[in-house]
Structure formats: structure tokens, C-alpha cells
Amino acid sequence: MKQLFDDLNNILPNSPGGKSSKWEILTKAIEHIRGLKGVEIQARRDIDRYRSDAEFANRLKDENERMRLEIQRMYDEMRRINPQATHIYGEHTNNIARQQPAHPHAPNGVATGMPGVLPPPGQHQHWAAPPAPQQSSAMQGVEYNHAQPYDHR
Q1: What's the pTM value of the predicted model, to 2 decimals?
Q2: Long-range contacts: 63-69, Cβ < 8 Å, 24+?
Q3: Which superkingdom (predicted)?
């Protein structure tokens, strides 16, 4: 028994190797165990909270991926309906546009921004955008069928 009390006394914090009574050793051991139980309870709470946070993050990741796929499909459909427009509305569609091949009818192989390209400044000629492709009856955006050049005076 004496050896067991000495071993217990040696592994307890704040009493390594010092001479202590059996009562002191047992009291310190009980206090240490209670402290460890509190740490264990807090660790379990933290684990539960981290597990919940990880599940929430995974749900958000899944939702984010579904939204990215939906944006990609919408972008592809808009390009099919109106291939002359870039359809860039933010960072994600800009990244998608960079991954897409340029429209074959765009100047210098670059996708154009609007359904027509404005003439260079200073050239005052009558200019009109090319006719818009056939679209559904749903409103798709502004059309400039009879555009007049802007007077830069």
C-alpha cells in the first residue's frame, strides 16, 4: 500500500516526490480527478459544438456547390440565347466567362459586352446594333434597335 501511495503522490501535480500523509495524497487525488472531470465535460461540450459547426459548414458547402452549378447552367443558357453578350455580373460569372471560348463573331476573338459594339469616339456615323436574336416572350433586357450616336460636344 505504501508503494501505491508513493506512486500516486508522484504522479499528482503539485506534490511530486514530497512527503505527504495518506490523507493529503487522497485529497489531492480527488481534487485532481474532479478537475479532470470538469475538463472532460467542457471537452465534450466543445466536441459537440465543433461537430455541429462542421455539419453546418458541410451543409453550406453543399448548398454553395449547388448554387455554383445552377449559376453555370444559367450562364450557359444565357450564352445560348444571346451569345454576343458577356453575361458577366460578378466574380463568379467573370471566372466562368474566362473559362469559356470567345464568341467567334466578337472582334479580336474577345467576347463583347453588349449586343453591339460602339463605334470609336469621334466617328459620327449612323450606327445601330445588330438585330437581337429571337428570344422568348419573357423580358430579357434592354434592346437598342434604333440607336443614335452620342454627340461628344
Answers
A1: 0.44
A2: 68/92
A3: Eukaryota
Domain boundaries, the chain: 2-62
Taking each continuous run of H as one helix and of E as one strand, the counts in the chain are 3, 0
Amino acid at 129: A
Q: Residue 130 has what DSSP assignment?
A: P
| Rounded distance between C-alpha atoms, residue 29 and residue 24, angstroms | 8
100 is written with which cell numbers?
469559356
95: its cell numbers: 471566372
The whole-angstrom separation of Cα 87 and Cα 113 is 8
Q: What is the pLDDT of residues 25-66, one digit of tens each?
A: 899 899 999 999 999 999 999 999 999 999 999 999 999 999
User: 79, 57 in Cβ contact below 8 A?
Assistant: no
User: Cell for 126?
Assistant: 449612323
